[in-house]
Each structure stands twice: as C-alpha cells, then as structure tokens.
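quick one before i forget lol
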Amino acid sequence: MTLYELTAQYEEFARLAAEEELPPEVIADTFESLDGEIEEKADNIACIIKELEAQADAIEVQENVLNARKLSKRGNAKRLKELLSSQMQRLDKKKIETDRNVISFRKSTALVIEDEEAFKAMHADLCEREVKVKIPRKAITELINSGAEVSGAMLETRQNISIK
C-alpha cells in the first residue's frame, strides 16, 4: 500500500471513529497499526530521499572532477598545438598530410594593442563603454583595414595551426 493510500485510510478511519461508537481498544489498535505502516513508509521514503541527495552530491563531485580534467586536457592540447606549430615553422613545413590528419597553417590577422590603458586614454571615442572599458577589436581592425592609422594599434599576420 502506498503512503497516499495509507494516509487516506487513516483519515477515513479517523472520520469513522468520530461518527460511530467504536470500542476504545479497537480505535487504539487500528491507529497504532496504521501509524506503524505510515512510519515505515515515511522511513523508506526518507531513505530514498537521502540516497537521491547523496547521488546528486556524488554527481556534482564527479562533475567538478570532470571539469578539472577537461581544463587539463584543453591545456595539454594547446601546449601540444603550440609545440607542433613552432617546430613546423622552424622547419619551414607549411603542410603535413597523413592518412589520419592534415596539418597546415591558415593566415589570420589579430589586433595587437601595445598598451591597453594608454590606448583607452588616447582613443576613448573608439572604445566601447561598459562597466569596464573595452577595446572594440573588430571595429579597430576594420578601421585599419580601410586605411586609417590608429596610433598604438597595428595588425599582425599570424600562423594558426589547423588540424582536420
């Protein structure tokens, strides 16, 4: 019998006991019996709740462990990418193609701000205002690409490794 059914049965018997003349020992025995079953069900439900909470806590711990592992793996991959890139550039290798991978470089441009604080002071009109001052790199890159000179900023050609 479920806790819901036991509770309904308890309430029904309490109503019946109030309306009818039942011997006190019958009422006491019945309530004691129902109380015992309800307490057992409540205890079982409490155990299930504790188990579910323990499982949720264990999942959270595992989530933190996995996140730390993820960050470690990403860091290792980044360092290996930098190593591969530097060694290929050192040997002037533009592309390596194997059965499993194609390793090559693609050109990109990145805005380099020599001194961000000085840049913000000199070019407040180009900077976006938020809670903290932010340099709009894309807009400044477009300005430089269109031929404008922006002191303190330049475009730098980089080699970024691509693994497919």
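fyi Residues 3 and 42 are 7 Å apart (CA to CA).
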